[in-house]
């Protein structure tokens, strides 16, 4: 990957974008040399009720980890997302909703958003929800999910959105963990033509949670499909009935900058999900500024992030960031391959989408289905493409750039985490040249660094563990109810720094390449390499659509390389092909990376956000699957049985 391709910023982009290279350098330097000055000014993009006098008050000291931004200011997040836009853009569309069926859509203006959010806020208040209470939102991708989040923000309740694809047990754990007593759900969800029994799941979850001592006072149910559901007298409420009983206006609660805005459980790729807690002021400033500059959002643009609101990407870049900026944000209920593999691009054409943000898992799946599904659509409205969630293999990056964007749209590969609140490492489209597979450079105020296993800072072109040296406003403040877990998880490994858990390489241009989680780094005969590197080589083979690589104990090499490979539609899984793939990786990277074992896998175990769960693949590769750990966040548990059955390393 040393001979990385570079896609330079085009002159048109340098011209049209808010930030060009000179401006990036100037603003970046100021942001790290004078964080108080820089963020004090940038925070003016948000409306404050009472202005702050203090900007940054943060400590990464292991014995006293504490993160506060704008701490004496007050504000309300829903006012920033709605009310302040009413003067000039009440009739502008705030949310375009595209339903699971292509015939189903809705346009919600800022004026309507205000009314719906206020009514829902009043319903919650009428049923006893107060500032600081935890409200669980378990919803499909319908506008009411966004109303629910903003309604919580309006009255100062802390929302905990649980992805609608999670099981009753996962929901129960999350209700219990934050002791939430108010749940908002819908009768059923619909994705890809299939119904998901959200209300029935909620009933099961509450039953389980209450056995463990939790207590849920009310369940508010939005009617989505009209499917038959049981309503429990005295507890369950219909949304459509309740909103008629309350006023259309709800005065916002004055919140401290450091009052919690939400709790969100991480996707659980590495273990038990953590209740990541974000607060109000810094989070709003950070999501707003990153949404504007990373996506180069200009007034009137149609912006679409395909994430689910159940993930942090949905929080920061479907709801809070875009709405704080008065944007038109598209919310999609469905899946990329329903009714056909052209759906994403048809939606882009239908609504004139200018900015499109998705995940490598979707890009690889669509790439595997062939170009025709893309090329038969117009996509002429598209101007910018984005990626988030996993390292994007250069092969997939190039496909996205060439086939989807027709070499016209820059691709921003955005690295960040639930914990970081917003994007930390990314190209800015008018400023920073893109390299397929690299997230490139830090955003304003972000100081990434690479350390070795002993915590020594490494200089120049190097490889190691990715840490961040100092705080930025969007950073999580604690693990809900467990500050010690927060400190131990992020600040104990390399004392004085925030440890991301990810490995990375920094090249001679100072660009960052995320190589995957550090637990996934391979050590083969003393050579360290990221699993992402071997995976990218495999995916670059024309017959391979997806690959996951893990290490397993090897007598001679210490660690052997075990590859799970999903083939392109129609390709035959033969021993010949295994040989071919082995030789391919040898020639792409070198003999040291030669796969020891290859298993053809029709499907890979993924989290419900579409990330490959290497933790489980490692267990199977080690021929030790007696204890696969927490599998509650797995999307399709059956995939695991197939992998176990066809495992290649049998004791
Ligand atoms: P858990 O923390 O529960 O194991 P998770 O880390 O998958 O789950 P998220 O916060 O959703 O939960 O994901 C953040 C991680 O995703 C990052 O730490 C990184 O490993 C990966 N990631 C996100 N974006 C990128 C990107 N652009 N390039 C490479 N990796 C990325
Ligand atoms: Mg993580």
Automatic annotation (TrEMBL):
Recorded GO CC terms: cytosol
Residues annotated for Mg(2+) binding in this entry: 539, 541, 544
GO BP terms in the entry: acetyl-CoA biosynthetic process from acetate
Cited InterPro entries: Ac_CoA_lig, ACAS_N, AMP-bd_C, AMP-bd_C_sf, AMP-binding_CS, AMP-dep_synth/lig_dom, ANL_N_sf
Entry cofactors: Mg(2+)
Residues modified to N6-acetyllysine: 611
PROSITE patterns: AMP_BINDING (PS00455)
Keywords assigned: Acetylation, ATP-binding, Ligase, Magnesium, Metal-binding, Nucleotide-binding
Domain Acetyl-coenzyme A synthetase N-terminal: 24-81
Gene3D superfamilies attached to this UniProt entry: 3.30.300.30, N-terminal domain of ligase-like
Enzyme Commission number(s) of this protein: 6.2.1.1
Domain AMP-binding enzyme C-terminal: 533-611
Residues given in the record as CoA binding sites: 191-194, 313, 337, 525, 586
Family of the protein in this entry: Belongs to the ATP-dependent AMP-binding enzyme family.
General function of this protein: Catalyzes the conversion of acetate into acetyl-CoA (AcCoA), an essential intermediate at the junction of anabolic and catabolic pathways. AcsA undergoes a two-step reaction. In the first half reaction, AcsA combines acetate with ATP to form acetyl-adenylate (AcAMP) intermediate. In the second half reaction, it can then transfer the acetyl group from AcAMP to the sulfhydryl group of CoA, forming the product AcCoA.
This protein's name: Acetyl-coenzyme A synthetase
Provenance organism: Afifella marina DSM 2698
């Amino acid at each position: 990957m040393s001979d990385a391709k570079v896609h330079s910023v085009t002159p048109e982009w340098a011209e049209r974008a808010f930030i060009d290279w000179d401006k990036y350098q100037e603003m970046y330097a100021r942001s790290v040399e004078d964080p108080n000055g820089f963020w004090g000014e940038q925070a003016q993009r948000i409306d404050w009720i009472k202005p702050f006098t203090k900007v940054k008050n943060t400590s990464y000291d292991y014995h006293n980890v504490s993160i506060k931004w704008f701490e004496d200011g007050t504000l309300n997040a829903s006012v920033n997302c709605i009310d302040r836009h009413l003067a000039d853009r009440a009739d502008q569309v705030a949310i375009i909703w595209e339903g699971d069926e292509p015939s189903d859509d809705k346009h919600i203006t800022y004026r309507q958003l205000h009314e719906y959010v206020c009514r829902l806020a009043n319903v919650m208040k009428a049923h006893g929800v107060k500032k600081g209470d935890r409200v669980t939102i378990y919803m499909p991708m319908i506008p009411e999910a966004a109303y629910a989040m903003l309604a919580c923000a309006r009255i100062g309740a802390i929302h905990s959105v649980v992805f609608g694809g999670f099981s009753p047990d996962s929901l129960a754990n999350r209700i219990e963990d934050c002791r939430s007593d108010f749940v908002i759900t819908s009768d059923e969800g619909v994705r890809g033509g299939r119904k998901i029994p959200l209300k029935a799941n909620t009933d099961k979850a509450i039953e389980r949670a209450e056995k463990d001592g939790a207590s849920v006072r009310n369940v508010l149910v939005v009617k989505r499909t009209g499917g038959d559901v049981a309503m429990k007298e005295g507890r369950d409420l219909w949304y459509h009935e309740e909103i008629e009983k309350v006023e259309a206006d709800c005065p916002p609660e004055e919140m401290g900058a450091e009052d919690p805005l939400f709790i969100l459980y991480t996707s659980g790729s590495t273990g038990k999900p953590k209740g990541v807690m974000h607060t109000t002021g810094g989070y709003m400033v950070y999501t707003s500024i990153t949404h504007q500059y990373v996506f180069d959002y200009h007034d009137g643009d149609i912006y679409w992030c395909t994430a689910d609101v159940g993930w942090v990407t949905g929080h920061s870049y479907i709801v809070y960031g875009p709405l704080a900026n008065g944007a038109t944000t598209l919310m999609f209920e469905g899946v990329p391959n329903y009714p056909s593999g052209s759906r994403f691009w048809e939606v882009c054409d239908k609504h004139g989408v200018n900015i499109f943000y998705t995940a490598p898992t979707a890009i690889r799946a669509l790439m595997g289905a062939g170009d025709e599904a893309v090329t038969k659509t117009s996509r002429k409205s598209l101007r910018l493409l984005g990626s988030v969630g996993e390292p994007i293999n250069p092969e997939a990056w190039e496909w996205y750039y060439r086939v989807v964007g027709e070499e016209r749209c820059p691709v921003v590969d955005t690295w960040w985490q639930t914990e970081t609140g917003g994007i930390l490492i990314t190209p800015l489209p008018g400023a920073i040249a893109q390299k397929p597979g690299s997230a490139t450079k830090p955003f304003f105020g972000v100081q990434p660094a690479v350390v070795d296993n002993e915590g020594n800072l490494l200089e120049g072109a190097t490889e190691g563990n990715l840490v961040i040296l100092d705080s930025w406003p969007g950073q999580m403040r604690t693990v809900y109810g467990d500050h010690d877990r927060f400190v131990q998880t992020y600040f104990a490994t390399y004392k004085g720094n925030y440890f991301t858990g990810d490995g990375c390489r920094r090249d001679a241009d100072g660009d960052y390449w995320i190589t995957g989680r550090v637990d996934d780094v391979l050590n083969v005969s003393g050579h360290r390499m990221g699993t992402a590197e071997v995976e990218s080589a495999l995916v670059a083979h024309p017959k391979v659509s997806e690959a996951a690589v893990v290490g397993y104990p090897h007598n001679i090499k210490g660690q052997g390389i075990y590859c799970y490979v999903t083939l392109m539609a129609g390709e035959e899984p033969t021993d010949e092909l295994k040989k071919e793939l082995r030789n391919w990786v040898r020639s792409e990277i070198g003999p040291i990376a030669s796969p020891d074992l290859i298993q053809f896998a029709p499907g890979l175990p993924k989290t419900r956000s579409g990330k490959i769960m290497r933790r489980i693949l490692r267990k199977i590769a080690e021929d030790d699957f007696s204890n696969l750990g927490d599998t509650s966040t797995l999307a399709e548990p059956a995939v695991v049985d197939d992998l176990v059955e066809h495992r290649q390393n049998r004791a």
